Amino acid sequence: MAKTENNGTVKVRLVKGLAGSQARHRLSVRALGLNRLNDTRELKDSPQVRGLINKVGYLVRVEE
Fold this sequence. Notes:
The chain is an alpha+beta fold. It has 2 helices and 3 strands, in the order E-H-E-H-E.
């Protein structure tokens, strides 16, 4: 997992559409604050956020 050294945040981008994905995974993407394709959010790096990212790793990309 890429992590920025400056402020303990992680940048997440939605790279795949949600059509055909499981309902739980769609909810996880919403919990990350991602709504549309190519949406990017900078989130606090915490175990909860890492768990959500791991669950939907096939839909999102972690960027530096």
